[in-house]
Amino acid sequence: MAKLYFRYGAMGSSKTANALMVHYNYIERGSNAVLLKPMLENRDGEKIIKSRIGLESECSFLSES
Hints:
The protein is an alpha+beta fold. It has one domain. It contains 1 helix and 4 strands. The strands form 2 sheets. Strands 1-4 form a two-stranded parallel sheet. Strands 2-3 form a two-stranded antiparallel sheet. Strand 2 and strand 3 form a beta hairpin.
């Protein structure tokens, strides 16, 4: 069964860095993990999620279809 986790917090509270670290740990263990972001958010690149400390990963778009 799949699980969906929603992380929230104040700006600068390492939400993105934490998501990237958790994603990496799932992949290392051989599990499937998906990083999603809205299509309108493109400040770091089209399909890139990037934290302020330099961690980054490719992601998929969250769309309505």
